[in-house]
Amino acid sequence: SLGEEAEQFMVFKIAFLCFYVTCAMMQLYLYCYVGERLTFESTEVADTAYHCEWYNFSPENARLLIIIMCRARSSPLMITAGKFCWFTILLFELPYRFESLHTEVRGHLAGREEMEPIFELPRPGTVPHDAMLRVCSTNHQPTAHRARHESARKILLFLPEQNYIRHFFLLQALKFLLKCIAEDWATTETKTKRETMVKIARLTRIITIGCIMMCELIAFSFVSLRLVSMKYTDATMVYHGYFPYNITYSPNYELTMIGQALGAIYGGTTYGAVDTFIALLVLHACGQLSNLKDDLRNIHSYDKKDQQARLKKIVEKHNYIAWFVLNKSVNSNSVGSENFLNGFER
């Protein structure tokens, strides 16, 4: 009957929502994992330098090791989320740790009707049309919130012209980072270092395939959900929109449906490619830090005359890795900011 079909459709929607939330949490865990690994590897450099018995070196050589130890301890490499938090395993555990605190504090806050939404962020391409991320706060100054929201929308009107210029320089910077990765592969000195980089490359390939397949599955599930929902709603297309032609006639209708389905697949691929590319850059930096630790462990195998030159090379390599991560963080935050602003204005 119609009621049973509607009930089955509701179950399908709930299952899709659970699957989407699971995939989103897995992507968050990916960021937290690579961020935790980067912090761990950069901190381990200081411990490795300390266990090299730096106190038995000459003052000039010991000074170089102390520089590495102080730099690795005072400012370890980390991935930031908009410069207000760090991607670590602790960040992934925060929702579970603060769940009880949220339940307790929620009773002291204002009611739901007093919560004023600051902004709503639609997620294009992979979720239902009416699904969005909503950030709310207590409505102490509703007028100020509305004024801030309206002013933000006016400012965002000028962003499209600026995005083309920013994207051009961003792509140039990302191409330069890829050239750096190619140079690191070409300048690998020992078989052990190359094996370490191969392990990192295999892990990156597994993550890339898994993320893209997961995003493609979300896109396919969403398109299927929209097609099934046409029986119970007035929707005639996968995505709501205005077209410069009449879509009610054949083959306009079929071609438009195929185009929207391909757009969903393309959007899922792009959505997963950004995350996996950032993971690739971070894991490559982790591999370089691991090779740097191997150089520190084997520093005693060099003659005293060659130790200083080797240590200088290690310090330069450490500076290079820090520069690589810094450029990766700036470019990644730029990509994330652009995606956020585009979704915010939609």
UniProtKB/TrEMBL annotation:
Phylogenetic placement of the source organism: Eukaryota, Metazoa, Ecdysozoa, Arthropoda, Hexapoda
Pfam families: 7tm_6
Keywords annotated in UniProt: Cell membrane, Membrane, Olfaction, Receptor, Sensory transduction, Transducer, Transmembrane, Transmembrane helix
Keyword set includes Membrane: yes
BP-aspect Gene Ontology terms: signal transduction
Record's protein name: Odorant receptor
A GO molecular-function annotation: olfactory receptor activity
InterPro entries: 7tm6_olfct_rcpt
GO annotation, cellular component aspect: plasma membrane
Annotated membrane topology: Multi-pass membrane protein
Bilayer-crossing regions: 12-34, 203-223, 261-283
Location(s), subcellular: Cell membrane
Keyword Nucleus: no
